[in-house]
Amino acid sequence: MNDVHVPRPPVNMEDVARRAGVSIATVSRAVRGLPGVSPGTRDRVLGIVEELDYVVSPAASALRGATRRVAVVLPRLDSWFSSTMLATAQTTLRAADLDVLLYQVGDRHARTRFFRELPARRKVDAVYLVALPMSVEEEERLDLMGVEVVVAGSRLRDFPSVAVDDVDIGRVATEHLIGLGHTRIGMIRTSDTEGAGYASDRHRREGYIAAMAAHGLGPEPGLIVTGPYGVRAGVEGVRELLELDDPPTAIFCYSDDIAVSARHALLERGLRVPEDVSLIGVDGHDLGMLFGITTIDQHVVDQARAAGEMVIGLLAGQQPETPQLLVDAHLVVRTSTAPPPPRP
Question: Which residues belong to any copy of the HTH lacI-type domain (predicted)?
């Protein structure tokens, strides 16, 4: 009796995904050389592709979801930056007939729940991350989401993103104060969220330190203070800085709302802005304009709109021409900065 040869069924993308322990969309991104896949995951997927002799079909390579929903994920809603990002993202995505699901994940538990539950429920076609502080483990879990990922207001590995150069923001803000003649310059940072840190906070500090060092000004460790995120950070930061034996004559604040808070705290202590202490913030917040806060305008609306347009393009099968887009930030000089008071 002759042996009958039964042809082996063709390997498909689901087979590769199952063997690699990742989602079908991650396999799709890996074999097409698209961003959003860690080097280790990409190497594992491509190794299995070769082992199984898998050939990408045109239909599989054009895989897209069909929920018409986008998850907008952000660490908090009670900040001007986040609310402006959200409002602009919502408007941009809705104009393309995409619905928005909102996820506020400000602590470790909320982030863990999001990463565990969203992929299993297959609720969305894309994730729009708003400057979300993440641990290394959480970054790696993005590979398993199975959807397009765009980052707004920050950069994350090689995922498509729209951001500003926060190191340069810290440098420009500090150089402005040094150019006015200040040598004792403090910085009020914001505290990290639970289990992760804001890249923008870390990078602005790097820019501040680099500018101070370039002019031989240190800085002293005591000139950098950290407060919990919110307007109280300005009040607490001013309190700590004024307790120094030689307090600063200028303060670089992480954000405009913190600068407004710092201004209030200085006035309560009988100090004038800018005659006694100069203040500079970051954002381009309308509230800062009302109080005359010198700022680095990071054009938040432009960042949010560009990130939304990236999502729309990716869901239409179009890769962004500039996957990691940098938006220029600009110094806006107002009445809160001036030369330091004469030394007694």
Answer: 11-65
Name the stretches of the chain with pLDDT < 50.
1-6, 57-64
Beta bridge partners of 253: 188
What secondary structure does DSSP assign to 172-192, as a single string? Answer: HHHHHHHHTT---EEEEEEPP
Q: What is the number of residues in the chain?
A: 344
Domain 13-61 has CATH 3.40.50.620: no
Residue range 166-299 in CATH 3.40.50.2300: yes
pTM for the predicted model, two decimal places: 0.80
Contacts of residue 295, defined as CB under 8 A and 6 or more positions apart, other chains included, come to: 256, 259, 280, 281, 282, 283, 284, 285, 288, 331, 332, 334
Q: How many angstroms from the chain centroid is the CA of residue 57?
A: 35
CATH 1.10.260.40 residue window(s) in the chain? 13-61
Q: How many angstroms separate the Cα of 100 from the Cα of each of 78, 144, 224?
A: 19, 21, 39
| Strand boundaries in 244-323, DSSP class E | 250-253, 278-283, 294-297
If you average pLDDT over every residue of the chain, what do you get? 86
| Cβ-contact 204, 165 below 8 angstroms | no
Q: Can you point out the beta strands (E) in 239-293?
A: 250-253, 278-283
Quick one: fold of 69-163+303-326? Rossmann fold (3.40.50)
Write the pLDDT tens digit of every residue in 142-175.
766 778 899 999 988 888 999 999 999 999 999 9
